[in-house]
Each structure stands twice: as C-alpha cells, then as structure tokens.
Amino acid sequence: MLKRNFYREYPKFYVAVDCIIFGFNKGNLNLLLLKRKFEPSKGKWSLMGGFVQKDESVDEAAKRVLKELTGLDRVYMEQVGAFGDIERDPGERVISIAYYALINIDDYDKESVQSYNAFWTDINNLPGLIFDHREMVDKARTRMKQKASYKPIGFNLLPKLFTLTQLQTLYEAIYGETMDKRNFHKRVAEMDFIEMTDEIDKSSSKRGARLYRMNNDAYLKTKKFKI
C-alpha cells in the first residue's frame, strides 16, 4: 500500500498555460498581446497566461484563461507543447503548456480585452516578448500553417459570411506567400462545402462581391480539404 506522501521526495513546480491568440484583420494575421501590469517583467509584452488550478486539467485551464481575456468559450484551440527550461521564468520554476487559438477578430469582448491591457499586433511586426513567448508564437504559427493545409481551421478566423478575396488573403497570410487567383478559385470551386450565398458585400466597391459560407455538415461528410 502506497503512502500518501509517496512523492514527497520529489521537487514541486508551478504549472501554467499560455495562450497564443490569432486573429485576422485587414489582410494580416494578428496576435493578441498584453502589456504586463505586474512583476516579473512589468510593462513588457506578453502572451495571456495563468496557473493551472488544483481542480482543473491543463486543457480546462487554457479554456478558462482564454475566456477570461476574450469572453469566448467556443473557440478552436490546440496544444502547441510544453516549455520548461529551468530559468525560463525569473519568478519561480514554472513549466508552461502553450496553446494557440483562432478567433474572429470582431467577436471578442472588447471591454475585457481592454481591462487586461491587451492589444492586437501584426504578426509580422511583433515587439520583443518576455521569457520564451516568441518561441511559443513561432511554434504555434508553424503548427497552424501545417494544420491549415489539410483541415479547414482557417475559417475560424473569418466571419460567417466572407468573400473569396477575403478567403484567399487569409490563406496567403497563413502561408506567408502569394497565391494565383485563378488556381485558388478553382480549388475552392471543387469544395462543395464552401457555398455561395445570395448576399453581396458592397463595403469595398459599388458592384460588390459575392459572399460565401462554410457548411460544416457538408464538410464532415467528405472531410476532403486542401488549400
């Protein structure tokens, strides 16, 4: 029979989660960053994070932290990995589990974000980040890019109705490269789950552009996706 203090001889560490929150705005990927209000590294740029509580799993902790910042609870989220260098956090020995999340940049709770002193920043023009947060961001972006090539996760960054130009610009931002318009439209036309609607977006021109939507039920029947 094992004693209750069986693990007493082993060191104890803090376990945290950090959320890499991506949004899409004006043709560019954006990252939601905080200007820290507390030590260590007060006043510097940081990802949103928090410590795992006794009554929650790391996944639950990540969802809680994300909701506290954005007010959203149904968000695409995926674990990036564990970061545990001995001196990664000057405050204490902290092992952090990083997650990336994809949200529609128009759907979050703006008052909550402001209260946390958080701001959207162009992914291609990031400021210096504390600890190993830049490494987390780079790994998350690589993971997202790989996943987006065969799963329609990118649609989480778009509004429910979008133009083909918005869709192409999004994937150009994800991949970091320009795509041929004709070839892109051809691939989209082959996907029955990307449906054309009767609605027109006239925000950019008088003639306007046709709006499309993602039919998730239709996608689940085929699960064939490649952009």
Brief account:
The protein has helices at 58-70, 110-115, 133-148, 164-175, 181-189, 216-222; strands spanning 14-25, 28-35, 45-46, 48-51, 76-83, 94-102, 118-122, 194-201, 209-214. The protein is an alpha+beta fold and 227 residues long. β8 (194-201) and β9 (209-214) form a beta hairpin.
Give the secondary structure arrangement, pairings included.
Elements: E1 14-25, E2 28-35, E3 45-46, E4 48-51, H1 58-70, E5 76-83, E6 94-102, H2 110-115, E7 118-122, H3 133-148, H4 164-175, H5 181-189, E8 194-201, E9 209-214, H6 216-222
Parallel strand pairs: 1-6
Antiparallel strand pairs: 1-2, 1-4, 2-3, 2-7, 5-6, 8-9
Question: Can you give keywords for this protein?
Answer:
single chain, 227 residues, alpha+beta, seven-stranded mixed beta sheet, two-stranded antiparallel sheet, 6 helices, 27% strand, elongated
* Overall SS class: alpha+beta
- The portion of residues assigned to helices is 25-40%
**Low-confidence region ranges:** none
User: Averaged pLDDT, please?
Assistant: 94
Looking at the structure, what is the overall shape?
elongated
Largest sheet data: 7 strands, mixed
Q: What share of the residues does DSSP label as strand, in percent?
A: 25-35%
Question: Helical region count?
Answer: 6
Instruction: Report the radius of gyration as a whole number of Å.
Output: 20 Å
SSE string: EEEEHEEHEHHHEEH
Structure summary, number of beta strands = 9
Distance between the termini: 56 Å
